[in-house]
Amino acid sequence: MGMERIDKILSSQGMTGRSGIKALIKAGKVFADGKLVKRPEEKFDPAATQFTVDGQKIGIQQYVYIMMNKPQGVLSASKDKHARTVIDLLPEEMKRRDLFPAGRLDKDTEGFILLTNDGVLAHKMLAPKSHVYKLYEVHCDRNLTSGDIQAFAEGIRCGEQNFLPAEMKIIGENKALVEICEGKFHQIKRMFHAVGTEVIYLKRLRIGGVWLDETLDAGQARNLTNTEVIELLNRIHGIQQAK
Q: CA-to-CA distance for 202 and 210, rounded, in angstroms?
């Protein structure tokens, strides 16, 4: 993990914000390896330090899993010199130097993006063989038909690119839910383009068995619950059915 400020380490665990941690330090209630912490800017290795706050030992969570409702106009990246990224949108108490988006959503796509520092989980989640399905709401520029459903079910060929079979459910004349287990570049848009339609709105609603929290406004984020983390890990390791 590397060295981090004590106020940032402890606030990342959700107990209170950085101002609350600073108040606890000022009150003499924070210890690192048994030694009193006097300043919030003191740095420690969270993986190798035992912290005690107000008499309670604090176990530092090694891996972080954050659900964000990504808005349009924001890059799915850790940093960029010219545009806002999903990491930029996080409140300070949730930011960590090692966070990155697991997969990507196009700049103009909304919805559920997972931010984590768990590289193994991210790799497995994105691998088609893991069968971690992602569900999208799609709005198109024409009415959709049963022929489109059939084409998606058979798998789409776009130029030299083959896309695995996908499930489509029409929910309006030009609206559909589409479920895929891949995450190729512009995949949804390219699949619809191959059947003669263009995507005008795209939102990811679910990853595996974890649904986007609709109480999150665009740009807001929260940590996954323990139940959601277990659900995601189980899908990746094949403990539950893929869909």
A: 18
Answer whether residue 18 shows pLDDT above 90.
Answer: no
Classify residue 28 as left (phi > 0), alpha (psi -120 to 50) or beta.
Answer: left
- Please count the other Cβ atoms lying within 10 Å of the Cβ belonging to residue 241: 9
**In this structure, which CATH number among 3.10.350.10, 3.30.2350.10, 2.60.40.1080, 3.30.70.580 belongs to the domain 65-127+219-224?**
3.30.70.580
Active site residue 106: yes
102 closest CA partner among 64, 140, 72, 152: 64
Task: Give the dihedral of Cα atoms 60, 24, 2, 233; nearest 10 deg.
Answer: 30
3-state secondary structure 74-137: CECCCCCCCCCEHHHHCCHHHCCCCCEECCCCCCCCEEEEEEECCHHHHHHHHCHHHCCCEEEE
For 189-236, the pLDDT digits (tens) are: 999 999 999 999 999 999 999 999 999 999 999 999 989 999 988 877
Higher pLDDT, 166 or 18: 166
> Dihedral angle at the C-alpha atoms of 153, 174, 191, 82, nearest 10 degrees?
-140
Active-site pick, 88, 98, 106, 213? 106
Hey, what CATH topology would domain 133-207 get? Alpha-Beta Plaits (3.30.70)
pLDDT at 152: 97
